[in-house]
Specification:
The chain has 13 helices and 16 strands. Helices cover 35% and strands 22% of the residues. Helix 4 runs parallel beside helix 5.
């Protein structure tokens, strides 16, 4: 498949990781990077030496050779960039959350759906990860019994504050610490965890409760450095997420509790912990076992070879390769090329202005696409993130209206 000419808008830490990840993908040709802060722009160009650097993203959008863009700007800036990128005819991968308000997120998704023939993929990377799809089938098959609760956490001792010799730039780069624009830890980080739970449970949340406070970083910020939320799902299923910037112990992981087994997920690895009275599945006798304190975890490995299943530990991945972001961008590039080629074929035989017929034709390409989050999934995850952060700020329980999740 011919590489997709792509540009990256926003070259902060995540934007630079995105550029480095795209460099690992033969299906990508990075032609442009846009960032108005020159030091960040220069660092991004180091990872994409053949890319043109733009101090204004509008110049990147004007480059007709660039067919797709990845938007890595701060959350509250997404809407304007998305709208202009759609108008420029670009395929879009937009980091999640899509926006910091429900109204703006809804506007983004409605506009994306109106631009038939342009791919719009929100940054819910786990929905493209083969390991996650393997776990999805495992959990939904009932192999762990009835899932009745889940918990996840993100612990990292860092301030979230970035320094700059320029006071105006320091204010700008620390947008995550300002409550008027930031969705805080549960919105900016927890969104991925909460979306995983909704996806695995195949359920829509009905309420969310939250709490948060500043425990360590009393530096003028008004965003909690320690927060937790409880999301209520149908049939009294509860999902807890908690995060802190004050301690790194036990890192980043998720646990799903079933009546027969618990399933723990750490990055791209997972283990099953069987209950003594759980029925025998058969294959677990031969699977690799890893010790966790006084528990024995049975490795759950997607596409495992017999050697891996019987005890050989998998090699560690190279940086930026085979990460959730890698799989998300890989799917975006594949789907962009597939849809772009399909639209070109349609235009040769039919009236490209017949948007209804074009939409039906694009829908017919679904079977050729790689798994990826849809615009509506990105919208619903964003709504939950916004309301979860609101619950933390107000320290209260918020019943979730179905109208909020509707376009």
């Amino acid at each position: 498949m011919v590489p997709v000419n792509i540009g990256v808008i926003g070259c902060g830490a995540w934007g630079r990781d995105t550029v480095k990840t795209l460099a690992q993908l033969p299906s990508a040709r990075v032609l442009g990077v846009a960032e108005h802060y020159e030091p960040f722009l220069n660092r991004a160009k180091e990872a994409a030496p053949n890319a043109e650097g733009y101090s204004d993203y509008k110049q990147l959008l004007a480059n007709k050779e660039i067919k797709a863009v990845v938007i890595c700007t701060p959350t509250h800036q997404h809407k304007q960039v998305v709208m202009e990128a759609l108008a420029a005819g670009k395929h879009i991968y937009c980091e999640a959350p899509l926006a910091n308000s429900i109204d703006e997120a809804r506007e983004i998704v409605k506009a994306a759906k109106a631009h038939v023939g342009q791919v719009f993929q929100p940054g819910l990377q786990h929905r493209s990860d083969p390991q996650r799809h393997f776990l999805l089938g495992f959990i939904r098959s009932g192999a762990a019994g009835r899932i009745f609760k889940a918990r996840s956490q993100w612990h990292k001792k860092e301030s979230w504050r970035r320094t700059s010799p320029n006071a105006e730039r320091e204010q700008e780069v620390n947008w995550r610490l300002r409550g008027n624009v930031s969705l805080g830890l549960v919105g900016e980080i927890g969104l991925q965890h909460l979306d995983n739970a909704s996806w695995f449970l195949k359920a829509e949340p009905v309420a969310v409760s939250g709490y948060g406070s500043i425990q360590l970083w009393s530096d003028g910020r008004d965003v909690a450095d320690t927060a937790q939320v409880t999301v209520e799902y149908p049939e009294n299923v509860l999902v807890n997420f908690e995060a802190t910037l004050a301690n790194s112990f036990d890192g980043d992981h998720e646990v799903y509790y079933g009546s027969d087994s618990g399933v723990m997920v750490r990055k791209n690895k997972a283990w099953m912990f069987r209950e003594a009275d759980a029925p025998l599945l058969g294959w677990e006798v031969y699977a690799r076992k890893d010790a966790f304190y006084n528990e024995l975890g049975i490795a759950l490995v997607a596409n495992a070879t017999k050697l891996v299943a019987q005890g050989e530990k998998p090699a560690e991945e190279a940086p930026y390769a085979n990460t959730p972001l890698f799989y998300g961008l890989e799917a975006f590039l594949h789907n962009t090329r597939t849809v772009a080629d399909g639209v070109a074929d349609f235009a040769e035989n039919f009236d490209i202005k017949d948007t209804k017929a074009l939409a039906e034709y694009v829908d017919s390409l679904h079977g050729a696409l790689m798994p990826a989050a849809t615009a509506i999934e990105g919208f619903r995850a964003t709504v939950l993130a916004i309301k979860a952060n609101e619950a933390v700020v107000k320290q209260q329980r918020i019943p979730l209206s179905k109208e909020w999740f509707a376009l």
